[in-house]
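Tutorial sheet, problem 5. The two components below are modelled jointly, 848 residues in total.
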Amino acid sequence: MKNILLLEDLPEIRSWLKALVMQVFPNAQIVECARVHDALAQVSAQKFDLALIDLGLPDGSGVDVVTALREAQAEALSVIVTIHDDDDHLFPALQAGAYGYILKEQSRELITEQLQRISQGEPPLSPSIARKVIAYFAAQAKPQANALPHVQLTERESEVLLRVAKGFTLPEIGVQLGLSRHTIADYVKQIYRKLNVSSRAEAALEAQRLGLFGRR
Amino acid sequence: MTVHAIEDQPRDHAGPRRRHWPLLTALLLLVFAAAAQAQTVRFTQAQAVAADTEYFPELPDVRNVELPDDWAVSRPDHGGPVWYRMYFDAEAVRASGELLALYIERACSAMAVRLNGKLVHLSGRLTEPVSRSCQRPQLVALPVAWMQPRNNQLDVKVMGFPLRQVASRQRAGGLSEIELGPYAALATKHSWRTLVAIRLPEVISGSLFLVGCLIFAMGWLNRAQSFLAYFGALLVGWALVLSRQWVADMPWPNASSEFLLAILASFVTLAAVQFLLRYGGERRRWIDVALPTQCAVMPLTLMVMGAQHLHAMATFWYVVLAVEVGAAAMFYLRKLWLYKRTQFWPMALLGFAMVIAALVEFGAQQFGVDPRIVSAAQILPPLLFVALGIRLVQQYGRQLQDAQHDRAELERRVQEASMQIERNFAQLADLKVEQVTQQERKRIAADLHDDLGAKLLTIVHTSDNERISTLAREALEEMRLSVRGLTGKAVPLLNALGDWRAEFVSRLSQAGVDGSWHAPADDDVPQLLSARAFVQTTRVLREAVSNIIKHSGASRCTVRCTIAEGDLQVVIQDNGKGIPLELDGRLDRGHGMASMKHRAKQLQGQCLVESGPGYGTVIRLTIPLDRHLASV
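Model answer (C-alpha cells):
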C-alpha cells in the first residue's frame, strides 16, 4: 500500500484516521481530501492503492468517489469509513464498488485489524449486508427483471452469504464448510465484485430504459 | 228565343238504372218529404259568345254550348270573358212567392250574373287582377220582382284564363252546370260545397302552417334533428299550396299568382326530399346543393318560356319533382325495410296514400276529374302530414325524455366520480402525511448523525481519557440505536437473531472467551420484532456481553434463545466469578444491571439476574413478542 486517499471532512477525525493509517501502512503516501470535488480531482490525477472514503460530505456523497475510482482505477480498493451503520447508506456504496466498510466509532485496535484484513483481501461482511445482497440477487434472478446477461452467484457464494446472514462469522463458516480462511475471503471478494458488476449493468439498462443514452 | 235545357230530373242515361228510378224516387220522396217541393232546374246548355262587354252582346257568332263548358276543350286558346245566356220560365214561382236562387259550382275565375239585364251578382273582380274564385261555389239570390212569367233571360259573364296560362287545369277558365231552384235547397248544397272546397282547406292550411312553424322551430333549435326543420318547411309549403283553394283576391295579376304557385312546388319538393333523406339518416352534400339550385332554375325556365307556356312547363316540372320525391321516398322506405322493419308498413301505407293523392291531383290538372274526388284527394295529404307530424313530435318528446334521463344519469355518475376522487384524495393526503412523517424522521436521524454523531466521534477518538472516550462511544451507540428506533421498521426476529449472533460471537472471540449460541430453527421464528424491541434487546445483550468481557473473567459463555408462549426468552450464562452484591443487598450498579432491567420493563418484559460468587452469572431476559408482532 503505497498511495492512499483519505476523504474525510472533519479535521480531527481525519488526522486521527491518518495517524491510524500511518501506523498500519508506515511507508504509505497519504493524500487527504475534505470534499468530493477535491477527491475526484485526485482520482483523475494519480493512482491509488487504497481509498478510505466518508459517505456524508459537505458537497456530496462519497459514493460518487467510489464510482469514479472503480471506473478509473479498477485495482484500487475503496473502503467506506462511516458513522452510518445502516444498510440504506452502506449498500449503494457497496454496489458502486466499495470493498468493505469500517465504522468510525470502533476502537483503534478493531479498526487497525479491519484495515489489515482488508488490505490482505479479507473484506468484512455483516449479516444485514449479506441479507441485502441475497435479496438483491434474488430480485435479479427473476425472469422479468431485465434482459441483461445477469451475473449470478455460485452455489458456494450463496451458501457463504446465507451463513453470514444467520450470524456466523467467516472463520466459523470456513470450519463448517471445510474451507480455508483464504478461500472464504475469496468468496466474499467475489460477492462484492459481482454485486458491483451486476449493479453497473443494471444501472446502464435503467439509463437506457429512461432514454438517458441517445438523447444527445 | 228558345227555352233550353229545362230539366226537372237528374240526367241519367244508363238503361238498367232507369228501371229502378221510380222506386228510388218514391223512397226519396218519403224521406225528404219537405224537400220534395223543392224542384230544381238544371241548365246543361247555354248560348255562348266571347265578348268583353257590359251586357250580353248582340253578335252573330253566338253559338250553343254544352254545360259544363270547359274552355280547355271548347276554346283552348281563349281567355275571357265569355257571355252565357239561358232562359227560364217562372210562373209557378212568381205565384208561390218563393225565393229563387242560382247555384253555380264553378265559374272560373270570376263571373257576373244579370237577370233580365239587371246585375244581380258579382263573384269578384272581372278585370286584372281578376279574382281567383275557381273553386268557390256561387249562390245567387234571384229577386222575384225582376222576373217575368216566361222567358227570363239569365246572362252569366265569365272571366277566365286559357289552360296554357295556368299551372293547373283546375284553374283554366270554364263554367259548370247551373242549377236554378228554391233558395233554401240550393243554400244547403252551396254550404256543403263551400265547406269541402273552401272552409276545410282554409282550416287545414291554417293548422298546417302553425304546426309546420312549430316543428320547424323544433328542428331549427335542435340541429341534430334537422329533418324536423325540413318537415316543418314541408308543412308550411303545403299550407301555402293549399291556400290556392281559398285565397281569392291577390293584389297582383293572375299570371303572377300562377307563377308563384308553380315555383312553390320546387320548394315543397326540396323540403320533402331533404326530410325523407335525413329522416332516413342520410345526408348528401350534392343534394344539399342540387335542390336549392333547382329552386332557382325552375322559376328561370318558367320565365324564359313565358306565361303562354306556363302549363306545359309547369307540368314538365311537376313530373320531375314528383319523380324526385318518389325516389327519396323509395330510398327512405328501403332503409326502413333494411333496418326498421316494424315501421315499414305504416310508412309504406302513408306513401301509397300520397301516391294516390298525387295521381288524382295530376289527373285533375291534366284531364279534369270530378271535383268531389279532387277535394277528397286534396284533404288526404294534409291529414297524413298531421299524423306524421304527431308521430315526429312524439319521437321528439321521447328523445327529450331520454336525454333528460341520460343527463340525470350522467349527473349521478359525475357525483359518484367526484366522491370517489374526494375519497382518493383523502387517502392520498393520509399517505402523504405518513410519507412526510417518515421523511422528517429520516431528516432528524441524519441531523443527529451528522452533528451529534460527528461531535461524539471526535470525542471518542481525540480524548486522552479512556473513560471519557468509552462514554462517548456508548453515547454514540445509544444515539444510533435511538435513531433506529425512531426510523426503523419492524425486523424479522430471524434477522435480529442473526445480527445478535454475529456481534456476540465476534466480540467474545476477540476477547478470547469461548462463546456458544443456541437459537431455534429458522422455520420456528416467523415473528416480527418492532424496531423499539429490537433496539432495546440489542442494548441488553450488548451490555451483558460487555459485562462478561470486562468483569466476569469467564472463559465460556452460552446464550440460549427460545420462543415459548409468545415470549422470546434469552438466557445468558457464563462461568465467571459472578457479580458482587452491594452493601444494600442489590447487584452492583456498575454492571449496568439496573438499566438492563429498566429496558426489559419498557418492553413489558423482565430481566432476571442470578449470580453468586464462584457460580457465574445467569441472566434471563424475557420479551413478550405478541405486543411487538408486526407493530410496524
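Marking note: The first strand of chain A starts at residue 3 and ends at 7. Full credit if you identified this.
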